[in-house]
Amino acid sequence: MSLAIMTCLGVLLDTLFGEPRRAHPLVAFGRWASALERRFNPGGRGWRSHGLTAWCLAVLPWVMVSVMLVNIPYLGWMFEALALYLALGLKSLGEHATPIAQALRRNNLEVARRRVGYIVSRETSDLDETAVARAGTESVLENGSDAVFAALFWFALLGAPGVVLYRLANTLDAMWGYRNERFERFGWAAARIDDVLNYLPARLVALTYALLGNFSAAIHCWRTQAPLWDSPNAGPVMAAGAGALEVQLGGPARYQGELHDRPVLGLGRLPTAHSIDMALLMVRRGVVLWVVLIVIGGLLSA
What we know:
- Converts cobyric acid to cobinamide by the addition of aminopropanol on the F carboxylic group.
- Keywords: Cell membrane, Cobalamin biosynthesis, Membrane, Transmembrane, Transmembrane helix.
- Its main location: membrane.
- Pfam families: CobD_Cbib (PF03186).
- By secondary structure, the chain is mostly helical.
- The protein has one domain (2-301).
- It has helices spanning 2-17, 25-40, 48-70, 76-87, 90-105, 109-117, 129-176, 188-211, 215-225, 234-245, 273-301, and strands at 248-250, 253-255, 258-260, 264-266.
- The strands form 2 sheets. It has a two-stranded antiparallel ribbon. A two-stranded antiparallel sheet has the order 2-3.
- The N and C termini lie close together (6 Å).
- The mean pLDDT is 94.
């Protein structure tokens, strides 16, 4: 039951305060990870073994520290709630997504392009209104899985050590998990570990999206379209989310000057500002559903 209480408290802290504007622990972690990468991947020449060693040095000490902190009498519960709060990105997701929809409604395409560029890696300078809405909706669905639901999953499973493990691993994937000359070998471990940690949460998220939208369309898109996507976890999440919202996502997108012909996901209408709003609402409703289930589980196990 205490875990359920800490879950509620962590989500409440995120709802009230969002991400810390100053001195976020992930900023310091990013500096530490960059130093390790310079040491173990000089000039992009590091091998897979170097990447795995750097990953262990970057993540495991902090997981061990979190194990010790949660066992401190009377203070461990505070660290539990704080760890979840710092790992969640629900309010931040809304703070980034809502201005995109607002700019589209005001027909201010330049601002919409700039705002969506904050949260996607594709090139945005030439996107039209539909493409901006598509990028924003995709980002809400995928980041809802990575930055919100997966953190809740690992916290519910392993408490603060679990959410620390997940959040740091996910951060390293964002830093090292690229398929380019610099990180192809060195970043392999970071990318694969993140895939493993997200495998089950991503499928629970896909099911959550289906339950909160057009269920049959979501399941159909998940089953038929997700296998075509290059990411084993983003595919189910975005295909099910697009089907649940009855909107068309995916399709061609340009990354670092190279056009990627991505499969089409979902069905129905083209995305608009309303699609971004509905995707964000679906994520928020999903969080409520997960928290309720965690509380019920705590009550039944008490």
